[in-house]
């Protein structure tokens, strides 16, 4: 273990520079963040991820946000275990009917102020699963959505751009 | 001797390829179940249609496969699960989706149907209603016992499912799973879809096995249409399948260690996983390599810098991974959590036909790549690691050995790959035809069965993840362990929710 740790010290950092926040995401958010919320949240956001029926592709890329290359925690973004601790719900999937109630309950358990980010093509409008007897459709048909991040699945860089846009607006940096 | 020689059947369906399918009477159906119960055959799949049920059977010794079909003229079929437990969840699913009743079944509780769809039996083609009762978990009673309910929304970034633990103090006396939360109705969405649209759905059955599903679906379609795939495409497909296996094994090895509070390993394997995905992106234009494999071949060739990216990936893994193996092997605090934890008994692994590292860590020597020797694996040399211990540690070691094998497989493929065509277009119209295929995903064998109509539209498609036969074994593995070891056991299985819920 010592060897691995020592080598890591001399290896140099793998962490990459932050991408610029997504402009379209900024525009979508512009109207939604008020001053009171900015004061409450400061410059960090606690994220609760909710899989509302995805194929798991989005989850894999959300996981990747925590690896050494993207290192999402350096921006004050962290994933939490309970909606009670969360500022942001990151929701994936075409919202299956079997998950709709659980999603609503998770939303209701999240204290205000809160934001909902719909991640991936399915979460936007149901994607390939739109029209299925077993799916509701986009996340916004179940709970209000503040920001959409496109992709199937969105790459970690796309996710980071969207989340940074959210963070900038919430912290009133711009 | 083929499987059907010992199972009386009425007539064989000649348009079914490459293995035979035959319609049986009740006597034939019972004979098939007898062979499953004796252990002579392994259950590969069990699925329905509005008026029929199919059993896919494997003779492990001869690598022979056959499908037997029972026509449910009275809306019922003799229960398989009442005699052969591995069929239980599939049987409950058949009832949920088609309304067909397994006669003499012991357990007819809904599985996928949570009474939220607004309709019953959605694939039956008729609008019937079912009696709705609150879901009953199996009882476990005793003075000291208490229940812990977990999910569907879990504490981590994982898929939704419900776990009902009954515990005596810290020790689990029963775990019962209830899944279906990610049921998207994929099999109905596929009906009437053209091959391209259906392949996209297959790709998104379980995101971590996107390549394996696309591969299985494409091979089933090619078997049905009786078409060949260009040699270059064959290699590209397997190359993607092995990169997918590597990425998932790296992610899981790290995550298992992380659940034992050994974060260093997670950080290191996370780097290797990301390297795999980036090489995949460079080579095929998509990090998870979705929508590259299509019936007839591949949709696009590997990019010019894709091959060097793959070689660089192999060099990196060969340099870094041996040190990580040493780290795993020499960390006593980690071994303390993984050795003898979550044991899957060899008998259960065999009875359930457990695929992948779950089966191979419990002595079941089965790998679809070798057993069925589908191209290009018939031209490549590799070993299938098998261990007997059946604990979390054994499942980690199987993955470690599989990483080594995949690296060697990719190296062989890069050497053998030659320029050439990458796709044979499916022929226009060939009448109704049926195909069956199995590919080895990172977690085990994926089965794809489909029937195409004259216009090459999917009439019926069934996809079966390895998880169907692994999830129930997780229930057995946790017994007697403490609840705190559940994440470790669970991650060492890493069963698919979406793949099993469909």
- State the low-pLDDT regions of chain A, or none: none
Low-confidence stretches of chain B: none
Question: Terminal Cα separation of chain A, in Å?
Answer: 44 Å
Give the quaternary arrangement of the chains. heterodimer
Topology:
The complex is a heterodimer of chains A (174) and B (502).
Chain A: H1 2-11, H2 23-30, H3 35-41, E1 45-51, H4 57-64, E2 77-79, E3 88-92, H5 97-109, E4 115-119, H6 121-125, E5 147-149, H7 156-171
Parallel strand pairs in A: 1-2, 1-3, 3-4, 4-5
Helix pairs in contact in A: 2-7
Chain B: E1 11-13, E2 16-17, E3 21-24, H1 26-38, E4 42-49, E5 52-59, E6 64-71, E7 76-78, H2 88-98, E8 101-103, E9 145-150, E10 162-168, E11 171-178, H3 186-190, H4 195-203, H5 210-225, H6 231-259, H7 263-284, E12 293-294, E13 297-298, H8 306-329, H9 332-338, H10 346-351, H11 356-360, H12 368-371, H13 392-416, E14 433-441, E15 444-452, E16 458-464, H14 467-477, H15 486-493, H16 498-501
Parallel strand pairs in B: 2-14, 3-6, 7-8
Antiparallel strand pairs in B: 1-3, 4-5, 5-6, 9-10, 10-11, 12-13, 14-15, 15-16
